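A reminder from the course coordinator: this example appears on the midterm review sheet, so study it carefully.

Given structure:
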């Protein structure tokens, strides 16, 4: 089996999973666990804006669940909204951060936020491209999905 065939199979499976999760969201729109799982999958597929919508919904239903807050933090970081990412990572740490990923992200992002605040009046526009690359936002983080 070629690498290309394998990649096509994986992409097809992810598309099917996304469709199933979207159907489940329609059937149970208040279920934060489904919203988190769908958001996580969208994030893994590089569909950051769609992921944020789902993960924000999951946060509304499950505000004290560390992995939901961590996943949303990762999505905000990918968008370049470092200030929002930090808020979510702090909430994940407050909620227990069982695997330590949110704490690691905070340690990485807080110095970037300090530089941005010192040099840019509007943090919502996101960091300079060099800061995003340094922060790991271009990599494929593995937010815990439970």
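Designed residues:
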């Amino acid at each position: 089996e070629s690498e290309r065939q394998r990649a096509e199979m994986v992409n097809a499976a992810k598309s099917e999973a996304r469709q199933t999760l979207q159907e489940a969201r329609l059937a149970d729109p208040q279920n934060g666990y489904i919203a988190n799982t769908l958001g996580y999958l969208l994030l893994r597929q590089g569909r950051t804006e769609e992921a944020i919508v789902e993960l924000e919904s999951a946060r509304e239903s499950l505000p004290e669940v560390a992995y939901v807050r961590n996943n949303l933090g990762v999505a905000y970081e990918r968008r370049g909204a470092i200030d929002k990412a930090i808020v979510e990572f702090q909430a994940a740490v407050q909620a227990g951060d069982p695997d330590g990923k949110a704490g690691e992200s905070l340690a990485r992002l807080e110095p970037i936020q300090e530089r941005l605040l010192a040099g840019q009046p509007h943090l919502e526009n996101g960091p300079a491209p060099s800061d995003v690359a340094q922060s790991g936002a271009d990599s494929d983080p593995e937010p815990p999905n439970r």
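Confidence is low (pLDDT under 50) at residues 121-142. The helical segments are 3-27, 32-44, 48-61, 66-79, 82-94, 101-119, 129-135.
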